Sequence to fold (653 residues):
Amino acid sequence: MSQSIETVLTEDRSFPPSDEFRGAARLADRSTYEQMWRRSIDDPEGFFGEVARELPWLEPFTSVLDWSGAPVARWFDGGKLNVSHVCLDQHVEAGRGGEVALIWEGEPGDERTFTYAELLAEVCRFANVLKARGVSKGDRVAIYMPMIPEAAMAMLACARIGAIHSVVFGGFSAQSLTDRIEDGGCTAVITADGGWRRGSILALKDAVDEAVQDQAQVHTVLCVRRTEQAVAWSEGRDVWLHEALDGVSDECAPEPMDAEDVLFLLYTSGSTGKPKGIVHTTGGYIVGAYLSTRYVFDLRPGDTYWCTADVGWITGHSYIVYGPLANGARMVMYEGAPNAPHEGRFWELCEKHRVSIFYTAPTAIRAFMKWGDAHVEKYDLSSLRLLGTVGEPINPAAWIWYREKVGGSRCPIVDTWWQTETGSIMLTPLPGMSATKPGSAMTPFFGVDAAILDEEGNEVGHGEGGLLAIRRPWPSMLRGIWGDEERYHDTYWSRWDGRYYMAGDGARRDADGNFWIMGRVDDVLNVSGHRLSTMEVESALVSHEGVVEAAVVARPDDLTGEAIVAFVIPTDEVADDGGLALGVLLKAHVAAEIGKLARPAEIRVSPRLPKTRSGKIMRRLLRAIAAGEEIRQDTTTLEDPTILDELRTGVKA
Ligand code: WT7
Fold:
């Protein structure tokens, strides 16, 4: 059967929630959604003012939205609040301090549980340690941690004292960490000796030591003991958390923050230049995280919620730490890999902790499919009632598998589209209302005015593809790029003269108006649900002495969504092995420079790259070659057409 017929067939399927699900759902019918959505657009002040007042403010806000400084929004001006107070104190003060906030499991199977009262006490102690080390309001703190409770505590402790956290994914290399520490001007780093990953130790402290070598402004490296191997120690700078906590008070008053004070920076890849430090502020961000967690995941008392992301990504910020805790949820956090010590690990955890809401990424779902149904079928997953996915478009086959094998054909699936920049979920089904379609992110969330435009900014008709754009400010939107106001304007607002936020994704709407995301339109790769820029991988490649020029493209991959294929021109002539040995070296080099996530799946070494007469590399051609497609494109602008055969047959490392 041809691909296009299959797509048409799958698009017709739609799955309404069961009567049972709908009966208990927070939002169960379309007209309520439409009313609420309409109000959130026509009267954002009324709508979001009310939502924000559900949270505890230390001082009330005097205005809801100020868009006069567009494209930098101000939400809830005049108000003061503290996000750790919203996430912890309010629940303890309401008498829910004894309820479980966090159930954590390490990869080796060790377990720790914290109630809201316990988590609050830990966060206060942690915050007092930071204070004692001289960290104060507005300072930037890098967090480079495994998935242990202290990662969440570190974020909340920063928030408590008004320090700005910048979490760097533990899979990034020392060099990537340096770049982020330097760009953010971080003066302290919170890390651990290591974390467990597939039975081995991820040596985080070693990487930090290397990363801060030339970062003289870093006065403190606060280290959690986790894996217990010997680590190097720099007296004066390095501090063990468990030693520093000795005798420290478990009370620490939350710093009253202005709604527009910066809460955190989180770096993400753009198509050109260095990673962007996306800036999120306090009031709008927590309102967005709170509201979306509540409605998209239909959170109710008694739920046990598990998001499998890492805190190093925005998903871990909004849907492990801030959104669930703001809602007083009980959540699960897991340190390790989904296949350690066995391929049924996630389902074992779901069964053991009676998880009811489960949120993961398409790349993980495809891996589970590959590992086989037996691993899922072995466990009792009857506690699950809602499933979610995020990070990249999900192919209908994976969606259906997720629904049937994991969800027992009874759980709605929320396919949530959003970005580091948007702070919270933007397009999504609402599980009690939507008849979901495999592969569609369905409808805009409250406050989201989404459109699909052509290059000129005209809305395209239903069924036609275009660029996804957002028309007006929403509370959790980014406020800018750290230290680079101009790049914020250029990247997101220049395409249509400041009238729309440009997401950088292609999309279309179907006849019913539902949104389907088609993937990135810029030179950004999406590997396992994480963004990487072609440019960064290319600069890592050319930083190797054996490479003169490099071009990186993506090809579709069954498991990771997209895989990286690099075409490189070697400094010397192509060796007799066709460049195989160089390719092997380069893969390791990129992994060391950026992180394993960025390691090319394939490297083709060739004396030349296809260029136009004006010297531009023809990436479209490279993409077709990488995907093994026949070249149907116009190649007449190519300087030397014989090059194509060379690249097609080139040895792959
Ligand atoms: C990009 C944002 C938001 C947390 C994870 C990634 C892609 C995200 C979906 C989805 C299709 C998706 C987009 C987006 N993406 N969710 N449900 N369907 N594509 O955050 O690293 O900021 O990446 O991920 O291309 O622009 P991020």
